[in-house]
Amino acid sequence: MKRILMIATGGTIASKSSESGLKPLITSDELLSYVPDARRFCQADTLQLLNIDSTNMQPRHWLMIAAAVKEHYDAYDGFVICHGTDTMAYTAAALSYLVQNSPKPIVITGAQKPIDLEITDAKTNLSDSLCFASHDKAHGVTIVFDGKVIAGTRGKKERTKSYNAFSSINFPYIATIQDQHVIFYLDDKALLTTPVQFYDTLNSQVALLKLIPSMEAGVLSYLASHYDAVIIESFGVGGLPSYESGDFHEAIRQWIRDGKTVVMTTQVTNEGSNMSIYEVGKTIKQELGLLEAYDMTLEATVTKLMWILGQTKEPRQIRDMFYQTVNRDILYTATW
User: Fold this and answer.
1) N or C: more exposed end of the chain, with fewer CB within 10 A?
2) Residue 261: beta bridge partners?
3) pTM beyond cutoff 0.90
4) Distance CA 175, CA 186 (A)
């Protein structure tokens, strides 16, 4: 029987009503007590690492979770992390970079309603996660939610209330779970050829700028004095405004001169960016050599940059690492 460590961090799944609203109060042992059927397929232990609303999740917490997995890695066959849904996709992506090539499963799950309610998705999600983490074919970082298994770098919360809150963006589901039966669509554990690798450094000085019509380029200049990298969410397949002043182009040039990193992505959830299609994207990309996120999710783009900048400041290394596929995060890189 597989040994699984369930790590609790808080979130809705562990919340109870208080005078100020739902608040994480349920302990890890209590969470596990709501899924007694899990004893049929695994022996689970618990670890109360945090008990916070996931809105308060920060990069230092991601490092804590990764460190806890590393500390207990040899003693367990898999890990289930209970987490709030609001930043779950960020945490799943971050752990994909902090714990790479893991032959053991590291599953992140949560719920839209607390586990102590009579009608809730929490019990099913937690039971499914323990079931998946106990499967011989499971490996790496994934999200398990509403019967779906999603690569850790491909998950996105697309619904605020419904049980089917998470989707896999630009990538198929790894598996589905029905009545504690796992049906795999991607079975690639045998392709793991390198040992598990843990990282313990992130650079959180990454900014996100969402373009809107008429935005002034001075925003970029302001960010440059506070951050080491910026991700620009542009329109459609990607581009920068080419207003008469040319301010946006000059602001980006200054970022590059200062040795800082600029990544272009799209505000559109599905199908990714391709700056080579329109003049507003192609010209500046060719001139300045900007990085492009292509089919990566925003959550993966943000956390991958934090991971990369935690390892190096050298522009060529940053480029090479950004375009290296980690846990299925990027498939389309065109001619970069």
Assistant:
1) N
2) 229
3) yes
4) 7
Angle formed by the axes of helices 88-98 and 298-311, to 10°?
40
Tell me the catalytic residues: 12
Q: 21 CB contacts (<8 Å, ≥6 apart)?
A: none
* The residue to which tokens 């049906």 are assigned: 183
* Span 278-326, pLDDT tens digits: 777 887 888 888 999 999 999 999 999 999 999 999 999 999 999 999 9
Q: Is 291 helix (H, G, I), strand (E, B) or coil?
A: strand
Q: Cα Rg for the chain, rounded, in angstroms? A: 21
> Distance between CA 23 and CA 315 in Å, rounded?
43
Nearest by Cα to 331 from 297, 303, 302:
297
Rounded Cα distance between 203 and 96, Å, is 16
Quickly list H helices, 171-271.
Answer: 218-224, 247-257
| Tokens 């460590």, located at residue | 5
Q: Is 23 helix (H, G, I), strand (E, B) or coil?
A: strand
